[in-house]
Amino acid sequence: MDWGTELWDQYDIIEKHTQSGLELVEKYVKFVKERTEIEQNYAKQLRNLSKKYNLKRSSKDEPECRLSSYQSFLDIVNEMNDYAGQRELIAENLMMNICIDLTKYLQELKQERKTYLMEAKKAQQSLESTYKQLDNSKKRFEREWREAERAAQYAEKTDQDINATKADVEKAKQQAHMRAHVAEECKNDYAAQLQKYNKEQNQFYFTDMPLIFNKLQDLDERRVQKLAQGYILFSDTEKHVMPIIGKCLEGITKAGTNVNEKNDSMVVIEQNKSGFERPGDLEFEDYSQGINRASSDSSLGTPKGPMDLLGKNKSKNFWLFSKKSKLSSSTLTPFSTPPAPSPANGPPSPKFGRDPLSYCLKEINKTVKPRISSFRTLRRSPTVTEDFGHLPPEQRRKRLQQKLEEICKELQKEVDQSEALGKMKDVYEKNPQMGDPASLASQINQTSQNIERLRAELNKYETWLAEAGGRGDTLRHKTQTFNNNGAHDMHSPDGAHSDESTPDASQAIYAEFDDDFEDEEVTAPIGKCTAMYNFPGASEGTISMQEGEVLAVVEEDKGDGWTRVRRNNGDEGYIPTSYVTINLNK
Q1: Distance CA 125, CA 117 (A)
Q2: What is the spatial distance between Cα 265 and Cα 562, in angstroms, rounded to a whole number?
Q3: CA–CA separation, 230 vs 232, rounded Å?
Q4: Sign of the Cα pseudo-torsion (70, 76, 77, 82, in order)
Q5: CB 547 within 8 A of CB 517
Q6: Which residues of 326-338 are buried (b: 16+ CB within 10 A; e: fewer)?
């Protein structure tokens, strides 16, 4: 069934229906645009939320960052940021695949519909024009036929009139005959116009308009089909990213399962363990018996309090559970020396008054009770020192070890740079055309100064670490490694040299070269190179080559301008990277 057959007389209905269909497409496009804006705003708010709660660079070294609960929270924040990215992708795909595509298609449909309606209007105007011609010819025929009838009647009347002359009768007959002839012509013209109109009308209702209506029907069906595809895309767009969104949600779930409360507790212990021993009980000091103060002090000789555990920091006024004491040096405390008592038979000191025992107990209560009354007074702000003496013993050892590792890495970097500069200077001396050795003097001098400075810092921090009782095997191994490489001479805390001998620094570079060659004799080539220039290879560790010679690449340039190669006969050595073209194996 088609519109041209069934709806041949419903032009207005078809026009209204097609217009309503296009308006529905516009309405759907507007709906999707608003949904896109919602998705974009949602994604923007999620990104802002993730940015707000994400860890800043300056906070990455905070102690709580090592807690699994905190790491899981950061994982959730990152997953939400990825989730926001998927919402942005949904908005982008909705805009591209539905809004833009449907808008473009809608413009094409409007133009096509306009063309069909113009064709229908043109056909209708042509039919109306033919009908007007028919109507005019009909009216003329009617008018002329009436005139012919009147002329015939007049001629007949004149012929019967006895008073009329023969000329009058003849004239009336001629007039009637002329009017009849004109009426006959109008009749023929009317018949021709009627036939023409009927033909055009048949063409209009059975051919032209059904064809136009069928085209409009096809347009509307294509519009409905495209709209249905838009409906499906509305769902498929989100379905397409659902697997990734599911992974984000799985990541959040995994972050929750990764939380380990026991591990967090161990991290808190590791980060905050002071290494102090718990203080022992205070002994009663009976001043009424005239006990010598020296014997009282001796009763506190064992490490019972934090002052005995702080080592060299005994002079600092420190207490584990309180802020720094503001009592003067003359005030009696459990860990300070009180004023010497007066002689046994002499008068009592004015400071003690009449009851020295009551005064002593009172002073002890003043100083001891506030210190152990509450854990809330635990926080303090000691002065930060270079040797980390402001930290508890355990934390101090960890910080010193961490600092030593940083210095070792920096020192190793300076040693590598010194070796590279030494090789480059040696090559410049052997081959002046490659460069001026004097140009490297400032860099070599600066590197040497840096090495000496780092040596001094390393010794200083090792001494402090030895005092803290935290020197480990790993650190001794690193120290011996530097000794073996000729970087610097290290000593044990007791002043003895390391077990391994330390070679002369001037020979360290070549000794390392020899060690490398011994360790990597069977290293597989990683590519080939072709010499562009001659190279004599006069210095130790280098190898000569001729222009055009092909060598196997054993080790790439590490940034010092040298590449390690091997000949077919097994000879290995370093050559300038700029002297060859290198093709590495893929």
Answers
A1: 12
A2: 51
A3: 5
A4: positive
A5: no
A6: eeeeeebbbbeeb
Q: SS3 sequence, 217-236? A: HHHHHHHHHHHHHHHHHHHH
* CA-only gyration radius of the chain, Å: 55
* Maximum CA extent, the chain: 198
Q: How far is CA 540 from the centre of its chain?
A: 50
The pair of three-digit structure tokens given for residue 518, joined into one six-digit string: 């011994």
Q: Which of 401, 353, 423, 422 is nearest to 574 (CA)?
A: 423
Q: Which residues of 512-550 are buried (b: 16+ CB within 10 A; e: fewer)?
A: bbeebeeeeeeeeeebbbebeeebebebebbbebeeeee
Per-residue DSSP letter, 562: E
Distance separating alpha carbons of residues 380 and 375, to the nearest angstrom: 12
Compute φ and ψ for 87, nearest 5 degrees: -65, -35
Cα distances (Å, whole numbers) of residue 422 to 416, 417, 506, 560, 572: 10, 9, 9, 11, 20
Q: How far apart are CA 89 and CA 91, in angstroms?
A: 5
The whole-angstrom separation of Cα 259 and Cα 71 is 8
pLDDT digits (tens, 9 = 90+) for 152-193: 888 888 888 888 788 888 888 888 899 889 999 999 999 999
Torsion angle in degrees (nearest 10) through CA of 167, 169, 175, 177: -120
Token look-up 């516009």 returns 26
- Residue-wise DSSP of 161-189: -TTS-HHHHHHHHHHHHHHHHHHHHHHHH
The answer to whether 256 and 74 are in contact (CB under 8 A) is: no
Is the pLDDT confidence value at 465 over 70? yes
- What token pair was written down for 142? 């009617």
> What pTM value is reported for the model?
0.51
Q: What is the DSSP letter of 497?
A: B
Task: Write the pLDDT tens digit of every residue in 532-542.
Answer: 888 888 777 88
